[in-house]
């Protein structure tokens, strides 16, 4: 016994519509979260979904649209950025670059940062201890503790947070809305 190809196609179309509705709802929630923590909005505006030809749905942020998203999602080690790379941003934001005259720059993810930190705190060896020695330090930023960042890192998780904190709650209802709406106009 084989199933009718039209019935299989209708089921796939409805299933894809359900997954697409879940992706739309996750995108809406991710953009709300990103709005609270975003600087330029580039990452927020890049949250999207794509329907694949065979019926699947991809949800996330394309690397081509926001290359920094990968690092912010999983976290990155706090680091020094030379002034020549951040000077335009610093002028726009009214941030003074630190460091000596020969090496002005900005320490990204330091103790005064508003980035979130991984459980246990952020880590760097760029903070100097007694005698000017580089020592590994663990500290907290002004952001919040995040279980979505890799150990010792700083960042802001949008996608992981949204999927984990809201996915199970919204997915069943959103899927059913999409599934049912795709079948509403179909004939049996």
What do you see in this structure?
The chain is an alpha+beta fold and 188 residues long. It folds into two domains: 5-65 and 157-184, no CATH class; 76-155, no CATH class. The protein has helices spanning 5-37, 42-46, 69-74, 83-93, 159-184; strands spanning 48-51, 57-60, 79-82, 105-108, 116-118, 122-124, 137-139, 145-146, 154-155. The two termini are 19 Å apart.
Give the structure's gist in a few sentences.
The protein has helices spanning 5-37, 42-46, 69-74, 83-93, 159-184, and strands at residues 48-51, 57-60, 79-82, 105-108, 116-118, 122-124, 137-139, 145-146, 154-155. It is α+β, with helices and mostly antiparallel strands. The protein has two domains: 5-65 and 157-184, no CATH class; 76-155, no CATH class.
Q: Strands, helices and their partners?
A:
Layout: H1 5-37, H2 42-46, E1 48-51, E2 57-60, H3 69-74, E3 79-82, H4 83-93, E4 105-108, E5 116-118, E6 122-124, E7 137-139, E8 145-146, E9 154-155, H5 159-184
Helix pairs in contact: 1-5
């Amino acid at each position: 016994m084989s199933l009718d190809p039209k019935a299989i196609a209708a089921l796939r179309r409805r299933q894809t519509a359900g997954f697409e509705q879940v992706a739309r709802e996750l995108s809406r929630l991710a953009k709300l979260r990103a709005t609270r923590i975003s600087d330029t909005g580039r990452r927020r505006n890049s949250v999207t979904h794509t329907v694949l030809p065979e019926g699947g749905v991809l949800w996330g942020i394309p690397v081509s649209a926001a290359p920094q998203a990968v690092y912010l999602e999983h976290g990155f080690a706090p680091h020094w950025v030379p002034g020549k790379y951040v000077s335009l941003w610093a002028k726009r934001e009214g941030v003074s670059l630190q460091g000596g005259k020969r090496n002005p720059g900005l320490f990204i993810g330091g103790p005064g940062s508003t980035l979130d930190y991984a459980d246990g705190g952020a880590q760097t060896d760029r903070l100097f201890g007694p005698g000017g020695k580089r020592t590994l330090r663990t500290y907290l930023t002004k952001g919040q503790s995040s279980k979505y960042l890799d150990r010792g890192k700083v960042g802001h998780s949008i996608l992981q947070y949204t999927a984990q904190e809201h996915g199970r709650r919204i997915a069943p209802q959103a899927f059913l809305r999409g599934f049912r709406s795709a079948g509403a106009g179909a004939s049996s």
